Structure formats: C-alpha cells, structure tokens
Structure prediction request, 401 residues.
Amino acid sequence: MGVQSMKSKYWILSGAVLIIVIITVVIVMKRDKKPALTYEKIRRGDITATVSATGQINPVVWAQVGAQVSGQIIKLYADFNSVVKKGQLLALIDPTPFEAALVQAKANLISAQAGVAQATATMELDRSNYERDLSLPPELVSRQTVETAKATYDVAAANFSAAQAAVLQAQSNYSIAKFNFDRTRILSPLNGVVITRDVNTGQTVASAFQTPDLFDIAENLEKMESDTNVVETDIGKVKVGQKAQFSVDAYPNTVFTGTVAIIRNAPMIIQNVVNYDVIIYIDNKDLLLKPGMTSYVTIDVGRQDNILMIPNAALRFAPKNSDTILRTYSLHHKLPSWVKIENKEAEKREWYRINKVWVYRDGSFIPLPVQTGIRDNNYTELIRGDLKEGDDVVTGYQAGQ
Prediction:
C-alpha cells in the first residue's frame, strides 16, 4: 500500500506540474502576441530633395549650315573640328550654271534699261509734237492732226511705262540670279568649331523641298548645356537657378555641376508620359564634355538642415488589417485640428502633405498623422506630428512574417 500510495502521489504531482506548465505557456503566448516587426527611430539630420532625369549635352549656341541652292559640291574648305570665323568659306557648290544665269540676267537688265532710254526719247518727241500742234491756231492745224498727235503721245507714254516695268522685272531676275550665285559659296554664320560635316566633295545637294544640313557649328564648346527631360510630376519642383549635378558614361567617377537656366513650356510626349525640357547651363572649360553625350542629372530642388526625419519605409508601411484598425481607432480618437486645416492646403502646396505612420504601443498598432516636407531617397522631413526624436516607428514586418 505504501508503494502504491507513493506512486499515486507522484502521478498526481506530475500531472499538476504539467497542467501548471501548460497554463503558463498559454498565458505567456497570450501575453506576447506582438508581431515580429522592424523599427527605426525618428532622428535629426539634413535632407536634400532632388529630381532625377536624363538629358543630352549640347553647345549653348550652335548653328546648322545648309545649302539654299541645288548643285554639286566641288570644294570643301572645312572639316570636323575645324575652327572657323564668321563669313569664312566652308564649301563651294559648282557656280557654272548660276554664273551663266547671272550673266543672262545682267544682259536682260541692260537691254531693259536701253529700252527705257529709247521709250523716253520717243515719248519726249511725241509730247513735244503734240504740245506744238496744240499751241497752233486752228486755221494752221486741223483738229484731226492735234488728236493724232495726242494719240501718238499717249502710245509713247504707255510704251515708256511698259519699258520701266521691264526694267523692274529684269532687276528682280538679276537679284535672284545674283542671290543664287552668291549662295554657291557656303559661309560660316558664326565664330566657332565644326562639330559635324554631312557632305563630301562631288556630292550633289538638292534644296527643292528642304534645306540640306551640311555643317553643324558650335560657337563655344566651353559653354555647354544639358537638354534634360523632366516628367510632369516633378516639373513643379524645378526652378530657375537651382543647382544640378550629373554624370556621363565617359567619366562615370566624375560629378559635373550646372545651373537650371531655362524651363520650357512646350510639352513632349515620351513613352506616353508628358515631359518638359529643362536647360541646364554647364561650364566646360576643360572640354571633357562633348556634344551628344547622355547626361544623368540630379537637380537639387530643396534642402533642410538639422530637422526631424521619418524613414521613408515608415511612410510606406501599413498593417495587414490597417482598414479595420483605422475604423476602430477613429471611433475613439479625434484627429488633431491641424490635420483638417493642413489637409485643405495640401493640394496647393507640393512640399507639405499629410501622411500617416504607425507605432506599436501596448500590444496595438496606432496610426499617427504627420505633416511631412521635403524628402530624399531615404528620409522625409517631419514638420508636425505626435513624434519626437528617438521614437520608434514601424518600418515593416520581419522576414517570414
């Protein structure tokens, strides 16, 4: 009996211990239902907001030189990278047919001018005869003679007018012929450097429908610009005078700088997205940048120093049942008054927005409205909200949760 009694007490004690362990585990599991989350603290720092875009490097001032007449190029006087002066001869189109046309037009002008001289002499003689007959007494000259003299004079005056018109036409033809002859000489419109040459000796250029592009000349390669395409969602942040940094593939480890100079209003549709051309002026004294290079641009559109910062991940986070939490939370808590005021102005002011971050307190997710300002790739300015430096905000679930 003694042994049996001890065994019974042992099993009763073991069962009691097991029950206590199970109850303890259940209580602990119920108490620690906190999800596995990642956190980051609110801290102070500096934020520089930027807009990223791509562009193309071009000279600030450059000109396309074309041909205004058709013909064969018989001589080139400039090549790639040639330094040229304004008015310098770049190429020569065969002037032979244009010279012949000019000579013919000159001859026609001289002939027309001679015709005016002859018509003038005839008109003056007929006018003199008419005036003489008109001045004689009726008994010395018949009325028919006077009328005939008048008609003869009128014809001479008409011929004189026609001769003058012929001179004007001949002068016009001569001017056109001289214009075409002069345009056989392709001249540089400015001082600069030849960037491209799109014509060869012996090539025939045709200007019937459009002016062919023969040379591209840059005025000064030390002054360049980046023609940058900025999407419409970012263009409101860009202002003239803002600083920009950019890189090019040719010098991946070099950061170039420039200044926003022009924001063009003309929209450009690129892959179904509206873009605007932002011109950034660049100092290129070392001549590293060349026309046509692709630039990867970052424009500084705002900066704040020593401010409270929210990690961007916290602004993107939302619990899995966030809608239910928000509905429940809104029944027992009122939003701060500033939220309603600022929310009305949020649409008008790009930088100041009302957002929401989440904290985990006393076993529950709590949404906190915050007013935010400028942002960079990692942090956003905290302007207003129930957060202070050192507070933890939820940035996500741990891996596997």
Remarks:
- The chain has four domains: 37-49+306-397, 52-60+220-303, 61-93+185-219, 95-183.
- The two ends are 56 Å apart (CA to CA).
- The chain has seven helices and 19 strands.
